[in-house]
Structure formats: C-alpha cells, structure tokens
Amino acid sequence: MTEITHHAYLFDAVRCIACRACMVACSTENNIEMDKTRIWQSGVGVKGEFPILQRATMVYHCMHCNHPDCLSACPVGAYSKRPDGPVEYDPKKCIGCRYCMNACPFGVPHFDYDKGLIEGAFIDKCTFCPQRIDVGQEPACVATCPTDALEYGDRDELLKIAHARIAAHPERYLDHVYGEFENGGTSYLILSHVPFSELGLPDLPETPVNEVSEDVMALTIPFALSWGAVLSAVAAGVQIANRRSAAKAKVTEPIEAKPEEQTK
Amino acid sequence: MKMNLTFHPRFRLPLLAWILLALMGAAFVIAMVRYAVGIGAISDLSNAYPWGWWISFDLFTGVAISSGGFLMAGLVYILGVEKYRPLLRPSVLTAFLGYIMVAVALLVDLGQPQRIWYMMIYWNHTSVLLEIGICVMSYLLVLAIEFAPVVFEGLRWKKLAHFFHKFVMPFVILGVVLSTLHQSSLGSLLLIQPTKLHPLWWTAILPIIFFVSAVAIGLAMILVESSLSSRYFKRGLEIHLLEKVAKAIPIVLATYLLLKFGELAWAGDLGYLFTSGVMSVLFWAEILLGVVLPLIWFSFKRMRQSPKALLAGAILLLLGMILNRFNVSWFAVKHSDPLTYVPTFMSNVTYIPTLPEVFLSLGIFSAGILAFGLAAKYLPVFEDEHSQAHAPGGD
C-alpha cells in the first residue's frame, strides 16, 4: 500500500451481502454497548421481477466530510478535522446540545438518550479507528469485510479504483462516485447499482451545507460593532438635543426645574 | 372543654397560585427523573428527532416573546421617547423572566447541563449556537442590570437604585445589540439545514426575517402584557400609549410580508406556495394568522382604540408567529425517511412530544407567571418614579 495522505473508505453496494460483520467488528474493536452501534445498515429490499431480481444494502459510517457540518455547528468545538481525513469528536468538551445532529445532512451523530447526569450523555459516531490506522492497520470494519465491499486507502487512490471499476463494468454500476464532490467531498466514497437516493443518501450540492451559515457568522462581529456605534451615536445625539431643549426651558420657566431637582 | 374549631391558615394563597405551584412541583419531579435516567426516559426525542418541543416552545418561542424588553429599553433610553416609560419596567421584567425560563429549560434539554459555561471558554467561531449562547447569557446580565433599580427601589435602597439608574445607558445599548444578534441568529440556526428545512422557510435572509418578526412579536407582547396586567392588578390601561404601539405593527408586518414574498419570488420558490401539501397549509396558516390579519386589524383606528380589540389582535399575531417558530424549528424540518433509513437503534422515526415534556415547559412557565405576579405586587414595576416628574432624557 502506498503512503496514505488522506484516509478514506470505498463502499461498493454491489459487493455488499448485508452480513453485518462490519457492525460486529466495529463494536468489538471500539467496545460499543450491545444495544448501540456506530455503523448501521439498511436495505432497499428485493426489487424487480423474477428472474431478474435485485437488492442493495447500504452501510452507513460517518462520511468524514472535507468540510464537516458537525464541526461547523458545534458551539464548543468538540469536533476536529484531522488534516489526513478523519473527523474526531471529543466527549470531554461536549455539552450535549445535539446541534451537530441537526447540522449533519447524513444524520450520523447519535446521542445517549438513556444516560443520566452521572453516567453522562454524549454523542457517538464512527471515529475511523485512529488506534488502527495510525499504526498502519485497516479500520476494523474494512479488515473484517468478507467480500471487499468496504475498502480502505488513500482518497485519491480509491477514487481512481472506483472510476476504473465503473469503466470496467459500466452495465453494473451507476456512473457516479457518491462522496467525490457531495457536500464538498467526503472521505467515505460509495459505488452503487441503484440510485443513491434509494440507499437513503441525500441529494447534496457540491458546496458544503454549512457555507451560508458560516458566511453569515463571519458578519457577526462587524455587524455588532457597527450597530453598537450607530446606537451610541443616536443615543448621544438625542441626549444632546434633549439637554439643549431642557436648558432653553429652564431659562424661560425656572420654577419648573425645581421639583425635578428634588426627585434626584 | 370547648375548642375553637375554626381553622385559620397562616398563608392564604389564591387558587391560581396553588395551580402554578403544583405545576412547578410536577416539572421539578420530571427534571429530576431526566437527570437520573436520561432524556429518553421522559421525552420522545430520538436520534432522528434530536430537537423537539423544548427547542420550539422554550427556546424559539420563549426568546421571541421576550423581545418587548429591548424594544422598550431602546425606545425610552436610546431614542429618548420618555412618554413610554410606564411600559418600560413591565417589558423589562417580562424579558428578564422570559430569558431565565429559556435558560432553565435549556438546562434540562442539554445533555451536559453542568458544562453550560464551556460556551464561555471553548469558542467555535463558526457556530451559530455559540453566538446565541453567549448573547443570551450576556443579555441575562444586562437585563438584571436594567431591572436592578426596580429591586433596589422596592428595598428602599435609594442610593444603589440611583447608581444603577445612572449607568444604565451603555448596558441598554449593549442589550439592544445583543438582542438584535440573537433574535436574528435564532433564524441563522437553521441556515445549516438547507437540505432539511423546507424551501418555503429556508432562505439566506432567515436572520433578517427572524429579526423583523421578533419586533412584531415584541410589540404584540407589550399589548398583551399591558392588557392582562391591567385586568389582573386592576390598574388603568395606558391606552393612548398602546394605540401608538399598535400603530407600528402594520408597518413592521408589511416589511415582513415584502421580505418574505420578495425572497420567495427571487429564489423562485413561489411554486411551493400551493404544491407542498401540509407544508403549504402550515405556511398560509402562519402568514394569514400572524401577518395578514393583524396587518389589516391594526390598520383600523377603531381597533387600536378598543382595549379588547388590541388584546385580540395581538393574540392573533402571536399565535401566527409562534406557529412560524414551530414551523421553522420543527414542522418544516424534514427528517430521515423511515422507509430507507432504519438503523436498529434509530427505530423511533416519528416524534410526538410526551406529557412530561409539555408539563416541564408548563412548570417553568408557571414559575415565570408566579414571579411576575410577586414582582408586580412587591416591587414598583408599574409605578416608575421617573415617569412623571422628569425631563426627557435626564438620565
């Protein structure tokens, strides 16, 4: 394997046999509770008419976006993006607001709804197995996949492999690698023989969904300062105008000023 | 031996206070259960619906209906329109209590409420929620400073009251800036969901639309709270002032309509107005109730001069605008399709708020009403000593 500068997955829905071994491997590797999981699967069921039948399964990981929306949304910066791909989550900073879950267009982060204050309710999601990839191993799900439906490697290499596979079998694959450009590019690339929407994947533009939000946020401080300056100027102007008219009133009617002094 | 069997209770509370106290007690128990065994035990929130009733009602509605405070403070202090001073203190009190209620509700909704102060040390500058958190926390402090003279006057600590009164101006300006920021940022909170929020509501100018509607809501709240408190506390209604407040409402609402439909036309989303089924119905319901009807209603002088019509029109506006907040933060947000997206632990793909969720909000609301009642009774909320014998802009 060549030197990996940008860790990525390639998932091939044609090869997946829905055995769920990746889910088991992930939970074992990362010590996930029995009733929870970081990877999940869904199928579109059997489609078509006998004898031409077709089914497809999708394996959902964190997409490890190039411009992560969870990271953009998190108020306390519990998320971080490693320069070599993985999106990491730090439970030590998390306040449990669940804004990341709203922000993620893929609905990846999930939350401990069954934990009280003492146990602590946190977000969980795929971590890209840093304990494995940092020592040159494949992530647990990839290592265990029996049909090579899940592959791991450098993002550019995997993209080449994906496009080569489409070119070799154009009758088998849709001519599109999901995640190459979606949401600004993701580190989880998907090949499929059924429309991606049927796999439950959202139809996303090439600009990351956090773009408008971040543009507006960048205006906050300049706006706050200029709005504060305008208000201060108005307040000062009104005060000066009022004081002038009050001074005029004092000259003409000096008796009226007296009760006011007393209230002070 | 003859016994006196007549029972004299020490504290005689009106029935309303008992009901409010009971609701508060229920909310306390619900909150304790949530802290012990988790949010899932008392709510229907799930991984598919991470935000629900608490966000729509307590945060979005709570912040919106507390906007009267900054409007009145800005009008009286910054623009120096002294004649509105009688409306200032009740508005600031409503805002202060409103924001405390928002904060308390969020302490239940947050997964790690004990870490709320992390927002002050860990800053992610791209997060809209961080801006809202910081603005709301700072604004609570500003409101406390704005309301402090009332408390000190009530305690007859004249010097302290005067001290706070004297230095209130910079805090009023800060309060207006903070309010402008977070009232609009509640709209910005949804900007990150262009693929989830229905196009009838998602627009890049959501923050502006939210601010304009917050102004309308604040004006309506001033009408409602003056009307209700004049009835309950049997004091006179400042109808000559309220009429002017009501006169501003059609202008604000017309601006809102122009922005809303102008944006829809510009974005080419006008087609959704009639083709989106339930979403179209919800949209028209909020526009008719909250914008079109009150706009017409308050355009008539006869309506603005009748206390009953003022209250009715304001309630109409509030109902429509609260529906708008629910639409934006809940009803119009598309969640994962249950047919293709059913992870085993995520099987809960519908969301209906549970009774404990609603009762928690009711309990917090009850505490707010009780606090308003107590403040109105024991503090000089409705009699501002600066309101009569005072030259405009003196302080």
Would you mind describing this structure in some detail?
The complex is a heterodimer of chains A (264) and B (395). With 264 residues, chain A is α+β, with helices and mostly antiparallel strands. Chain A contains 9 helices and 11 strands. Chain A has helices at residues 21-30, 69-73, 99-103, 130-133, 140-144, 155-168, 211-218, 220-252, 257-263; strands at residues 7-12, 40-43, 47-49, 52-54, 57-60, 79-81, 87-89, 110-111, 123-124, 150-154, 188-191. In chain A, strands 10-1-11 form a 3-stranded mixed β-sheet. The N and C termini of chain A lie far apart (83 Å). Residues 256-264 of chain A have low confidence and may be disordered. Chain B is mostly helical and 395 residues long. Chain B is built from 15 helices and no strands. In chain B, helix 2 runs antiparallel to helix 4 (85-109) and helix 2 crosses helix 14. The model of chain B is unreliable at 337-348 and 385-395 (pLDDT under 50). Classes of the chains: A alpha+beta (264), B mainly alpha (395). Chains A and B meet through strand 2, helix 2, helix 3, strand 8 and helix 7 of A and helix 1, helix 3, helix 6 and helix 8 of B.
Question: What is the tally of helical segments of chain B?
Answer: 15
Query: What's the helix-strand series of chain B?
Result: HHHHHHHHHHHHHHH
- Give start-end ranges of low-pLDDT stretches of chain B: 337-348, 385-395
Work out the helicity level of chain B. Answer: 55-70%
The mean pLDDT of chain A is 90
Overall shape of chain A: it is elongated
Assembly state of the chains shown: heterodimer
Largest sheet of chain A: 3 strands, mixed
Residue stretches of chain A low in confidence (pLDDT < 50, at least 5 long) are 256-264
N-to-C terminal Cα separation of chain A, in Å? 83 Å
Strand content of chain A is 5-15%
Radius of gyration of chain A: 29 Å
Tell me the number of strands of chain A.
11
Mean pLDDT value of chain B: 88
Shape of chain B: globular
**In this structure, how is the largest beta sheet of chain B organized?**
none
